[in-house]
User: What shape does this take?
Amino acid sequence: QVHLVESGGGLAQPGGSLRLSCTASGDTFSDYAMGWFRQSPGKERQFVAAISSEGEVTGYDDSVTGRFTISRDNAKNTVILQMNTLKPEDTADYLCAANWSPYGGTYYTMSGAYNYWGQGTQVTVSS
Assistant: This one.
């Protein structure tokens, strides 16, 4: 079992950047594939980015490809979402999630694949 805590959200201007962090505690972090999702009021939870347990493969939603980068530091039990060239439509609550996947080489884009979730951090993009 892992406990996830997100940080780094806030207010950014269009075209600006934010860096979200998700820190895990509990089980062995390197056994988990990680993902970032976002959700706005009245909308379904949307996949943003994901990374395999050892960080060897990553995946992105088309809406963020080329602007967002996911990375992880297993020594620090942390996964990062670097968000550049932000747009107003990126405004949402951002949640990180963990899937027990100890053999590596896979990431997951479906929210139902994830066993553990953080509480979320709010990102607002507005001028």
